[in-house]
């Protein structure tokens, strides 16, 4: 079994050495003790290591990974702001244009990848109501416009950069999935 950890090319990781598993584990132990370490990772160096490894595989630096990755129902996801930042850093990204129409309560995200047609996704109040999200306690009740925007963003960026994002979804979307997903509801996923 190899003790190598995959690191993205040209990734500045500061003083941390993630080229050897034993060194990476020591770094993760220190990070897990730090007061700025997200509470879900605090005191859990193995979770920190997994988040960093996953993050490096999709192009995040170690500290970006622990700040941007959330594990929801046992599945890694990325906060919407981390996702757009990651996609903007891809050299193939020409632009990401987000709009919100207050009249129709529709968020739209257009993404252009070099050499490919534009990808567009829209998520409306009507779609949120159909998905039983509109008015749901939490961010859907307090920040509905932002949640519409995060859903449109997540769909468009995943469609445009599926090869780079490797199936990761936004944390905002992951929170809306039931914790126990049966076969029937898996088919209904978008």
pLDDT < 50 runs, ≥5 residues: 1-12, 182-190
Helix and strand element order: HHHEEHEEEHHHHEHH
Radius of gyration: 18 Å
Shape: globular
- Distance, first to last CA: 37 Å
Q: What fraction, in percent, of the residue positions are helical?
A: 40-55%
Number of strands: 6
Structural class computed from helices and strand pairing: alpha+beta
Strands across the major sheet, in which order?
1-2-6
Descriptive report:
Helices cover 45% and strands 17% of the residues. The protein is an alpha+beta fold and 190 residues long. The strands form 2 sheets. The protein has a 3-stranded mixed sheet. A 3-stranded antiparallel sheet has the order 3-4-5. Strand 1 and strand 2 (75-78) form a beta hairpin. The longest helix is centred in the last third of the chain and has 17 residues, at 144-160. The model is unreliable at 1-12 and 182-190 (pLDDT under 50).
